[in-house]
Amino acid sequence: MPASLQLLGQFALHDDRPLSTTPVCRRLLAYLALRAHPVSRAATAAQLWPDLPAQRAHASLRTTLWRLAGRELVCTGHSELALSGTVRVDVREAHRLAGDPEADMALFERDLLPDWPEDWLLLDREWFHELRLRALEALSEAHLRQGRPVPAWAAATAVVRAEPLRESGHRLLLRLHLAEGNAAAALRHYEWFRRQLRAELRVSPSPRLHRLIAPVLRG
After folding, report:
1. CB–CB of 64/25 below 8 Å?
2. Which domain, by its residues, includes 66?
3. Are residues 187 and 119 in the same domain?
């Protein structure tokens, strides 16, 4: 059975059972899994061991590769490294399915290794956070168009839970209220969001959001 690598929510590696790895091996596997193309050994060593001199960083990389030898997880070239193509990675699966109206929402409910402090992970984490919010919004839109309010609510609520001041998520919730004829609930939600924006950012909802609620405000 091919190995599967989980990077969303937490790190986990398994085939037909969990596979144990050392922390440094986990760092290398995660780093390679987040690269679309093979990366040089020099760049990998510099990213994973930034506080070490180049020679010691390369030695640490060689030791880490030795620990992973025989597991068929890493493809090692003379100067480049890549995660084996047989390893399934949840982040890659989420990237592939983002925008698919039939995608499993569970793929987009967790952020990328949220507890890891690695500097090299910051841009990847920011990229995936935005990708998952956009994917959830697309799912909510698709379910709303297809008359499936329950999953539409679930996806839109997940967006707001992740980013409480993200207007696009609140816009979806307002549209869901209005689609179900719940004008009073839509107005309450709009007023709550308006107060939150004012208190937290000292700004008002956008004209686009105001236009959405305007018929209710006019009564």
Report:
1. yes
2. 4-90
3. yes
- Integer Cα distance of 111 and 162 in angstroms: 9
Query: What CATH number is given to the structural domain containing 13?
Result: 1.10.10.10
* Tokens found for residue 20: 């144990």
Which pLDDT score is estimated for 159?
A: 97
- Rounded to the nearest 5 degrees, what angle is found at the Cα of 42, between the Cα atoms of 59 and 78? 85
Residue after which a domain boundary falls, among 63, 90, 117 = 90
The angle subtended at Cα 118 by Cα 29 and Cα 76, nearest 5°, is: 25
Residues in the chain predicted with pLDDT less than 70, given as ranges, are 219
The strand pairing partners of 82, in sequence order, are: 75
Contacts of 118 (CB under 8 A, 6+ apart): 27
Measured CA to CA, the distance from residue 123 to residue 144 in angstroms comes to 32
Locate tokens 């698709």: which residue?
142
Are 86 and 191 found together in one domain? no
Q: How many beta carbons lie within 10 A of that of residue 99, not counting itself?
A: 13
Give residue 70's pLDDT.
84
Q: Position 216: which residue type? A: V
Residue 166 sits in a domain of what CATH number? Answer: 1.25.40.10
Per the structure, how many domains does the chain have? 2
What local confidence, expressed as pLDDT, does residue 167 receive?
97
